[in-house]
């Protein structure tokens, strides 16, 4: 079975540009999570969805960040405008609702110059 | 503010010995606990979950949970060089689905 798929794997952009990260969860999983990992702050939960509905976005750092899940097979995390401090690895994870065992995608390494 | 604390290491263990990794958490209502392994440049990989007090064994791995002390640990028996990685402790709080992660312990198994 395919695992969680993320694209792009690497993104380099200039400050002020819009960045869109994409995620396809494991087929059948109905919970999806976006995390960000940095050396300073470790792995932090940004937002998660159950059955395509955003449940908790308290981890989203600013209004520049937004996330959508238009269907069970696709989610996006958008940063507009991007800033150098947004540079990090962004992970998407998925699970069955209520199972709590989350499986991570390979991540997107974002560099904002 | 939920917190999960781990010693960052590095923790150096000779090959074949037992590696012991520890984690404490602040939220008393936490119900579920997980250990993830992360190799450098890779994504976290789930290796163990534990939900009740006591020990849970899976192959060379044993997870231990003590809710009264708010403490969870991971033991790796017969450590192998391939076990060298960062181990992340993750906690699921009551009424929430998102995990709170510790910053991880860097484990080095010396051949």
What labels would you give this structure?
heterodimer, A: 113 residues, mainly beta, seven-stranded mixed beta sheet, four-stranded antiparallel beta sheet, 0% helix, B: 111 residues, six-stranded mixed beta sheet, five-stranded antiparallel beta sheet, globular
Gist?
Chain A has no helices and eleven strands. Chain A is mostly beta strands and 113 residues long.
The DSSP helix count of chain B reads: 0
**Silhouette of chain B:** globular
How many β strands of chain A by DSSP? Answer: 11
The average pLDDT score of chain A comes to: 95
Helix content of chain A: under 10%
Number of helices of chain A: 0
Based on secondary structure, the structural category of chain A is mainly beta
How far apart the termini of chain B lie comes to 40 Å
β-strand amount of chain A = over 45%
Rg of chain A, nearest Å: 13 Å
What sequence of helices (H) and strands (E) makes up the elements of chain A?
A: EEEEEEEEEEE
Largest sheet of chain A: 7 strands, mixed
- Taking the alpha carbons of the first and last residues of chain A, their distance comes to 37 Å
Outline of chain A: globular
Average pLDDT taken over every residue of chain B = 93
- Taken in chain order, the helices and strands of chain B follow as EEEEEEEEEEE
Helix content of chain B: under 10%
User: What's the Cα radius of gyration of chain B?
Assistant: 13 Å
Textual characterization of the structure:
The complex is a heterodimer of chains A (113) and B (111). Chain A is mainly β and 113 residues long. Chain A contains no helices and eleven strands. In chain A, the strands form two sheets. In chain A, strands 2, 4, 5, 6, 9, 10 and 11 form a seven-stranded mixed beta sheet that branches. A four-stranded antiparallel beta sheet of chain A has the order 1-3-8-7, with no helix packed on it. In chain A, β7 and β8 form a beta hairpin. Chain A is globular and about 40 Å long. The mean pLDDT of chain A is 95. Chain B is mainly β. In chain B, strands 2, 4, 5, 9, 10 and 11 form a six-stranded mixed beta sheet that branches. In chain B, strands 1-3-8-7-6 form a five-stranded antiparallel beta sheet, with no helix packed on it.
